[in-house]
Amino acid sequence: MTQSPPLTGLRVLEFAGLAPGPFAGLLLADYGASVLRIDRAHPSAHASSANPPPPTPDQLTRRKSSIAVNTKTPQGLALIKRLIPQTDILIDPFRPGVLEKMGLSPSEVLLKLNPRLIVARMTGFRRDGKYADMAGHDINYLAVSGVLSMLGRAGEKPYAPANIVGDFGGGGLVCFVGILLALLQRERTGLGQVVEANMVDGSGFLASMPRFAMDRKGTWDRERGTNLLDGGAPFYDTYETKDGGFMAVGALEPQFFEALLKGLEIKAEEIGGDRMDRRTWQRQREVYTRRFKEKTRVEWEAVFDGTDACCTPVLTQQELRRERGFDQRPIVTLRNSPGHAIQEGEAEGRQAAEGQGIGVEGDGWSEKGLRPGEGGEDVLGQWMGWTKGNHAGELKPARASQAPAGRSNWSLMPFDTKDIDWHSPDQSAQPRRPQTPPARLHQLSFEGAVEYFRRPSQTSLPSSPLARPHTSAGLYTSAPTGYIEKGDLETQQQRSQEQAAATSASTPPATSETSPTMPPKQQQNADSVENQVGSIFSISGPVIVAQHMIGCAMYELCKVGHDQLVGEVIRIEADKATIQVYEETAGVTVGDPVTRTGKPLSVELGPGLMETIYDGIQRPLKGISDESKSIYIPRGIDVPSLDRTKQWEFTPTPNMKEGDHITGGDCFGTVWENSLLNEHRILLPPRARGTITRMPKKGSYTVDQKILEVEFEGEKKEYSMMHEWPVRVPRPVTDKLSSQEPFVVGQRVLDALFPGVQGGTVCIPGAFGCGKTVISQSVSKFSNSDIIVYVGCGERGNEMAEVLMDFPELTIDVEGRKEPIMKRTCLIANTSNMPVAAREASIYTGITVAEYFRDQGKNVAMMADSTSRWAEALREISGRLGEMPADQGFPAYLGAKLASFYERAGRVVSMGSPERKGSVSIVGAVSPPGGDFSDPVTSSTLGIVQVFWGLDKKLAQRKHFPSINTSQSYSKYTTTLEPFYQREMPEFPRMAARVKEILSTSEDLDQVVQLVGKSALGDGDKITLDVATLLKEDFLQQNGYSDYDQYCPLWKTAWMMRCMMGFHDEAQKAIGTGQAWAKVRDATADIQTRLRSMKFELPDDGEEKVGKKYEELEKEMQEKFASVMDE
């Protein structure tokens, strides 16, 4: 019979911390304990249940609940102290002395409140050691425990392992064992105690066997990586297979070793003698390495499965999770009183008792994190008698008969009730009206202790993110200027109503039979609404024609049909307007209403753009998914582009006060958005101006909260932290500047031979599979831009899905710490299965977002992948409009459309004060059919952009990446960058020109070699060919998935060119003295090898350290050639 888990009934308080503490709490929860985590309270950032805090990074949250407590207040400490008598175990994950500073000393406070309490204290270093007051991580604890010195290959530095040994093995698991020992002791004595655990001693104890074996000859008495059990023995090591997988070999015993040789089909004499003789180990390793390379890992699995060869595949975590279906199981199985099954489901006790049982959806490897405050209400109800919701009744203490053994009743304190909400999984986010409390209640004093999520104020939101109330930017019209400075929609409507009233005054009033009685104001409003609504006249795919649209403007936003589909006017003829619809038009019929909005397609600009993924018309995909619970975008869905509930900490601009004059583009405050965008400037909209009548104070505001009031010509207007801007209108600037700073992407072939500039335009045409996405990721991850805007315009859904999955996982090294590049990235995803009209909108949406950050003084890189899909959308729309087609059916104005997009790039002086200089660099990927660069889109683009990075499919097929064709590519910015090179690297342009010259000459020589052979060439030409091969294989090629070559800084690129060109010059000098190239080449083979190894130097080691190595190489090369010429 299966019994309850062994720790059922235990109550655990876990202070939120890093891995070891939560892991110990996870083990306790898995075996039945009730674990309540104490999180820090953040009232300013998350002040409502509609805007709960995000899940914490801690994923070790299974079966835990949380309360958020402000431990810096007396009320917070009082709450914790009142929880202590109800608690069996408290987990302290802090550094030494933190609990004491909080006023929760275990000996002086906690154990006096509850003598049965077990206080588990988990530290990194020893509490009484020399490092006690120092910060550290897993690698530091392993280092001082002696364990790290044992990990690694012979002759190499110790490698940094994952935080398994220190954090989890020597930390959390050891702490869990200490808690169990203390529980056993409490059963005997009835008293709790302090459990001291630290990762130094825990990790060191795990290494007991190697330490004991140090004096035993032949086991662990040699240097790292040469012992029997640390990879020194060839029969206890890992080997790479044909397909890049690995097999692990552990054939220590003779009978197992014999089975290994049998599976490998190796005879005993081939290994050169006794397998335990260290003199044969090198030969054994070579034999095993060659043999394992002959088959794939799957083939070797088939050979060794079911044998005693101690040879198994090295499985990855991804394989365990996806392919092999290995569910996570409890750490140990108790048959009669098992822990909880890792997977939730029916009969979990039986499943756990049998090891795991049949898995159900959602296993233990896929934790989702725990929000601060989640589930804590229920746990406090079980522990303390807290009732659900916003109760205003009395918190009833447990009766004596109901109080658990060893726990006393509650002492109550006066408490004034508040309008509060717990963030609980089963509690609705909708605000509720609190009950009216009595004048005085007796409750626990929670005020200031627990983080309550207060209700948000109710604000009316626009009906659509794209149809928002008109702002001071003016009404977009078909007038040449594009704007009517002071004429907003309401003003025009009022004038039309006045004219209608004047006209009706000269006509007799309608009778009751012909016109129903209606108050004048309501009649005017009805007329105004009627004037804004037309009807569908015809439909052709995404293009519809609406009638009764007199008064509409070009590019005005409209709502089509009963589902309010988003569309844009692209042609006006008499009372008919042609509208391209950005959503699927299936189900729309002739006669359906078309509602004008009186404004153009606009985007919202403000805090919250970073780390967000939008569709082509700036609708947040995550917000749509959360609201619709669908994997598809429902038609007509309305989700604000910027989160209306999240609050941002606003800091006003110093020295700006009420009464000051302010104009468009002025910065009136800043917001800390994330660690990479720590100063998001809040700008006044470009068309606004006036005198400040109300200046915001420092505090937390939502993006739509009106915080600034400006008066101009007697009219007052309020502004929030966000504003809107029409996507088709370039944002105005004060001045345009020439770009003289390089656009560094970390690819040697691009930075050296075909450089771009900050504020420049780049085109990347290439067929499918040529590596456009890899270059795009390199630009996103390593470019010297501050902000990245990535627009997936009409690409295949699987490619866009890959981008959406990969980008959040990419990181960037900032001041020695890893940061996700999503913190400086805005993704706009518009796949090929979405309506074609939205492709054009996505391009304009992306460039408008880029211009917004440019106006803040940032260098922005915008990537459009790919503009070919946009051009195909133009072709389809043009065809449905019946326009005259040009080459391959594209519209005749294709070049003009592309030019209007690329012309929005550049380096500028932004409007407003303080003076800011920013840039927008556009990198446009083009996908010509079959890689044909004569495609109209490619040829039109090349006539506009200044840099051409041509991708060659033949190079890509040869696995030459980046697959840049150096003979076709070009850059027109070489002259522009000369001031930068003269200031920073005077020799750089000359060396780059020489590299191009050698590569060009080698192409001509290759044709000669194909006709007459290489032997017919002179020694000088042979040197050129050999150096060109060196350049192609070790300079132009880069491994985008290696730590040493995924990014190459300019200084490393310059050193590599300098050394390789130096080799070419020295070789030419040598043959000039009469030496044969064949002899010189053989004599300098070691120098060539070192030249090929230059790329393996890690940029993270720094320019000074790596530069010294390159200087030594250059010096040795000169000495070597001097000695050759002297012979």
TrEMBL record:
GO terms for biological process: ATP metabolic process; vacuolar acidification. Its main location: membrane. It holds the Pfam family ATP-synt_ab_N. Gene3D superfamilies: 2.40.30.20, 2.40.50.100, Bovine Mitochondrial F1-atpase, Atp Synthase Beta Chain, Chain D, domain 3, Crotonobetainyl-coa:carnitine coa-transferase, domain 1, formyl-coa transferase, domain 3, P-loop containing nucleotide triphosphate hydrolases. This is V-type proton ATPase catalytic subunit A. Residues 536-598 form the ATPase F1/V1/A1 complex alpha/beta subunit N-terminal domain. PROSITE patterns: ATPASE_ALPHA_BETA (PS00152). Residues 746-971 form the ATPase F1/V1/A1 complex alpha/beta subunit nucleotide-binding domain. Keywords: ATP-binding, Hydrogen ion transport, Ion transport, Membrane, Nucleotide-binding, Translocase, Transport, Vacuole. Belongs to the ATPase alpha/beta chains family. Belongs to the CoA-transferase III family. PANTHER family: H(+)-TRANSPORTING TWO-SECTOR ATPASE, V-TYPE PROTON ATPASE CATALYTIC SUBUNIT A. HAMAP family: ATP_synth_A_arch. Residues 490-516 have a biased composition (Low complexity). Residues 639-728 form the ATPsynthase alpha/beta subunit barrel-sandwich domain. SUPFAM superfamilies: C-terminal domain of alpha and beta subunits of F1 ATP synthase, CoA-transferase family III (CaiB/BaiF), N-terminal domain of alpha and beta subunits of F1 ATP synthase, P-loop containing nucleoside triphosphate hydrolases. It is an enzyme of class 7 (translocase).
